[in-house]
């Protein structure tokens, strides 16, 4: 069976919505390992989520941190999430969390857990770099959002879901620049790089877990495809 490498950008909103979501992590682990049994390999990049923004907001309330300072806070928060995932996958995971995907990777285990490398980028960008490193063309972006919408559904209830969109049209919907705490389905820098590399990104909600299972099995799923 030909091995397939899939990149998953796992949003912090799923790992730690308020408290650590033990039930989600258990279901996620079981699903990924079932796919490993089918011959698939994974790079899983963790996000920081709400806990990241809580730390950043405290810093902004007490002092005037630079964007770089805020990014370092974010990087620290998501590294904690990454270490948790590495431990949860145990013997199936590479022995350490990877931060710099520009270095060569020896793929001895079926799962690599990654986190951010340096300020000025999001984990979406790290997911793209991981895909570049292994020649993967498929990135699944998991968050608590069902689709890409034409406008922010949290602000406008008339927002329309988008099931398929080109990179050019998607990039026209989002901000042009990255800033710490930016909340878009897939960030601007990562989107530009993914487009140049001919990658396809799947935007979807990580819950219920069978939606992700459908995507991994090549079945119809609820979400947006950017290509």
Structural write-up:
It is built from 8 helices and 9 strands. The chain is an alpha/beta fold and 227 residues long. It has one domain (4-226): Carbamate kinase (3-Layer(aba) Sandwich), CATH 3.40.1160. The longest helix has 23 residues, at 67-89. 40% of the residues lie in helices and 17% in strands. The strands form 2 sheets. Strands 3-2-1-4-8-9-7 form a 7-stranded mixed beta sheet, with helices on both faces. A two-stranded antiparallel ribbon has the order 5-6. It has helices at residues 12-15, 22-36, 50-62, 67-89, 123-134, 167-173, 188-196, 209-216, and strands at 4-10, 40-46, 111-114, 138-143, 148-149, 161-162, 164-165, 200-205, 224-226. The protein is globular and about 45 Å long. The model has no long low-confidence stretch (mean pLDDT 89).
- Label the structural class: alpha/beta
- Proportion in helices: 40-55%
Which CATH-level-2 architecture?
3-Layer(aba) Sandwich
CATH fold category name: Carbamate kinase
Spans of at least 5 consecutive residues whose pLDDT stays below 50 are none
Q: Would you kindly provide a brief summary of this structure?
A:
The protein is of the alpha/beta class. The protein contains eight helices and nine strands.
Features:
single chain, 227 residues, Carbamate kinase, alpha/beta, two-stranded antiparallel ribbon, seven-stranded mixed β-sheet
């Amino acid at each position: 069976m030909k091995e397939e490498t899939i990149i998953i950008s796992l949003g912090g909103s799923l790992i730690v919505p308020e408290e650590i979501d033990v039930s989600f992590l258990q279901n996620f682990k079981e699903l990924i390992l079932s796919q490993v049994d089918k011959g698939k390999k994974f790079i899983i990049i963790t996000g920081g989520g709400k806990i990241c923004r809580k730390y950043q907001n405290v810093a902004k309330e007490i002092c005037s941190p630079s964007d770089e300072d805020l990014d370092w806070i974010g990087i620290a928060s998501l590294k904690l999430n990454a270490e948790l995932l590495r431990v949860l996958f145990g013997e199936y995971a590479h022995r350490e969390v990877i931060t710099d995907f520009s270095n060569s990777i020896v793929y001895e285990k079926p799962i690599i857990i990654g986190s951010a490398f340096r300020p000025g980028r999001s984990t979406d960008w790290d997911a793209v770099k991981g895909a570049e490193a292994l020649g993967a063309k498929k990135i699944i972006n998991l968050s608590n959002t069902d689709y890409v919408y034409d406008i922010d559904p949290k602000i406008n209830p008339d927002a329309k879901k988008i099931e398929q969109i080109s990179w050019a049209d998607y990039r026209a919907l989002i901000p042009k620049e990255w800033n710490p705490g930016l909340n878009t389905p897939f960030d601007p820098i990562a989107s530009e790089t993914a487009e140049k590399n001919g990658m396809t990104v799947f935007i979807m909600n990580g819950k219920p877990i069978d939606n992700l299972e459908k995507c991994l099995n090549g079945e119809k799923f609820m979400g947006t495809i950017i290509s």
